[in-house]
Amino acid sequence: MTERASTNETIISETLGRGPDRSANIGDWQFARWRQFIGSYELPALVDPVFVVHVGGKPDTRLWQAEEWSSSRSIPGCATIVPAGQPTGWRIDGELDVVTVSVPLASLTCGDAIDRFRHTRFAFADPLGIALTRQILSELYAPEGIDRTAYINVLLDALKAHTLRGPALASHAPFPTADFSAHRIHNIMNAVLAHPEADHRLESMAADAGLTPSHFCRVFKKATGISPHQYVMKARLERAREMLGESELSIAAIADSIGFTSQSHFTRAFRQFSGQTPSGWRAATLQ
């Protein structure tokens, strides 16, 4: 008889058919990196809530919701919360690279933290969580050493505190304009996702973050893994895929509505992003 899986990591390993690429403990919390899996997966209910950080891979990960695949997609730079006791379905188009942080139920002692992990929240922006996760990963692949271990422990504790508090709460705190402001980056990312068709100029986004354009580019890429221009382009093309499948607008009308200066430019960008022309994608989606 197979022994019952007793941890999130065991459940995930059995579902994927492989263990984590790297892992570390934060007391009774577990930090694990998973990558190089493709396809659709039905993940059984987990014993503890999990905070998932999308750190790399292709930007086309969907969640099974309301008897269909979600129209929104997770991309590198996004985070997801999966509560305990809830099976989930995932569709991965290409390589995925994620980190899971298992949050023991016993650590959820205050109302805000309990509410935060009670419901699924898919593909939301969390620049600070991404930045901490990336730094931890880089240290886990570095040579062993006393200083390294101490540094990783500090980073893990910071990620643990941030995971419990959440980016939404941190966004209400004032930050000096001249300093890196995670909540401003978070707000900029949300503004792009909400209105990808808008004119998101680098200078304007940098000004909103209180940074010079060059510094903003460095901070944004460190937080998300891609440049501001790439983030805007991905948001526009994701919206285009939704419109192609859900509306009867012409290709030219869709290109214009999401901020492309010409249909030819849109077609080239869409083909590079999706591997198909807009018309080909629409035909395949409507089959």
From TrEMBL:
SMART domains: HTH_ARAC. Keywords: DNA-binding, Transcription, Transcription regulation. GO terms for molecular function: DNA-binding transcription factor activity; sequence-specific DNA binding. Residues 183-284 form the HTH araC/xylS-type domain. It comes from the Bacteria. Signal peptide: none annotated. Gene3D superfamilies: Homeodomain-like. This is Helix-turn-helix transcriptional regulator.
